[in-house]
Amino acid sequence: MTSATSLSIRKRSRMLMFAAGVFPSGCAVVKMRTRSLDFWALPVVCQCGARGRRGLSAGFAADFDRQILLQSEAMSDYAPTNPAPASEPVPEAWIKTELARHPQRPDPLAFMEALFTDYSEVHGDRVYGDDPAMTCGMARFRGQEVMVIANLKGRSTREKVQRRFGMPDPEGYRKALRAMKLAEKFGRPILTFIDLMGANPGLGAEERGQGEAIARNLREMARLRVPTIATITGEGGSGGALALAVADRVLMLQTAIYSVISPEACASIMWRDASQRAKAAAALKATAEDAKALACIDDIVPEPEGGAHTDAARAAEMLGDRLHLHLEELKALPVEQLLEQRYQKFRNIAQFYTAG
């Protein structure tokens, strides 16, 4: 055994013995070294010292627990005087963002399966292809013939990859527009369901005119001569969501979000730190309540307690009731009044006036 090792062992023994109440020579040095210990480790040191103390002599068969407690109290002055600050509360906006992304949350396809019958799908955009991230078709909703349009995220891993996690290509938006024009031709109301982070930002999508496809949908949806209702069931992200949401009535589920950018992307840009996503979520005003206050949406659809994922059937029933209510109101309006109300609705979004 080297002299350095022997010295280290002796110092350690002195520290343990000091913690247990045995004060050998050089205790001042031991006490000084004890100050360098983290206070949370002291009970462990004391306990180890007590075990070592038992092995020293049978004469120490005293109440070691009491001795350890007394020594711990005596050492309380070594505890930190600047405790760590309490963590900041999580913003409600971020809690709702996580609920909107919950893996068990019903997706647009789940709502379609619960609310519609006799679904007959429309395939292809008649320009390039058939986008698996977008589904369109004619169906019946409580006895009323309607056109249903929704983006699809997928459920299994393979399906999610195939559908690009719900981010449509330009073919998807052109297919949706084709379905809208078909509905207008036959006088059928249009119901859209939205749950996407945004449109596909890939190079191929840009080369095939992603921006043009979204812009064309915005323009044409404003002109449709049939009632239109858009529902944001989870995430409503950027222009990709807006391309399906220029409607007479825009609904949001209670814990859905509607924003120009994701909280993570916003935090990366504004604070150069994606971990600030909760702060960004609050700043974006993306919750249903915020969107309603800004006149970006018309109605908030309540969810079962805990979120839609806790009772998907009940969530679908509650959404169906609201859809039916708004659809009946819109069907009673003349076409010209419908168009004028739609125009004024989007002209007046987020306008605030102060009394002067």
From TrEMBL:
<keyword id="KW-0963">Cytoplasm</keyword>
<feature type="domain" description="CoA carboxyltransferase C-terminal">
    <location>
        <begin position="85"/>
        <end position="329"/>
    </location>
</feature>
<keyword id="KW-0547">Nucleotide-binding</keyword>
<keyword id="KW-0436">Ligase</keyword>
<keyword id="KW-0443">Lipid metabolism</keyword>
<keyword id="KW-0808">Transferase</keyword>
<keyword id="KW-0275">Fatty acid biosynthesis</keyword>
<dbReference type="GO" id="GO:0009317">
    <property type="term" value="C:acetyl-CoA carboxylase complex"/>
</dbReference>
<comment type="pathway">
    <text>Lipid metabolism; malonyl-CoA biosynthesis; malonyl-CoA from acetyl-CoA: step 1/1.</text>
</comment>
<dbReference type="GO" id="GO:0005524">
    <property type="term" value="F:ATP binding"/>
</dbReference>
<comment type="function">
    <text>Component of the acetyl coenzyme A carboxylase (ACC) complex. First, biotin carboxylase catalyzes the carboxylation of biotin on its carrier protein (BCCP) and then the CO(2) group is transferred by the carboxyltransferase to acetyl-CoA to form malonyl-CoA.</text>
</comment>
<dbReference type="GO" id="GO:0003989">
    <property type="term" value="F:acetyl-CoA carboxylase activity"/>
</dbReference>
<dbReference type="GO" id="GO:0006633">
    <property type="term" value="P:fatty acid biosynthetic process"/>
</dbReference>
<keyword id="KW-0444">Lipid biosynthesis</keyword>
<protein>
    <recommendedName>
        <fullName>Acetyl-coenzyme A carboxylase carboxyl transferase subunit alpha</fullName>
        <ecNumber>2.1.3.15</ecNumber>
    </recommendedName>
</protein>
<keyword id="KW-0276">Fatty acid metabolism</keyword>
<dbReference type="GO" id="GO:0016743">
    <property type="term" value="F:carboxyl- or carbamoyltransferase activity"/>
</dbReference>
<dbReference type="InterPro" id="IPR001095">
    <property type="entry name" value="Acetyl_CoA_COase_a_su"/>
</dbReference>
<dbReference type="Pfam" id="PF03255">
    <property type="entry name" value="ACCA"/>
</dbReference>
<dbReference type="GO" id="GO:2001295">
    <property type="term" value="P:malonyl-CoA biosynthetic process"/>
</dbReference>
<comment type="subunit">
    <text>Acetyl-CoA carboxylase is a heterohexamer composed of biotin carboxyl carrier protein (AccB), biotin carboxylase (AccC) and two subunits each of ACCase subunit alpha (AccA) and ACCase subunit beta (AccD).</text>
</comment>
<dbReference type="InterPro" id="IPR011763">
    <property type="entry name" value="COA_CT_C"/>
</dbReference>
<keyword id="KW-0067">ATP-binding</keyword>
<comment type="similarity">
    <text>Belongs to the AccA family.</text>
</comment>
<dbReference type="InterPro" id="IPR029045">
    <property type="entry name" value="ClpP/crotonase-like_dom_sf"/>
</dbReference>
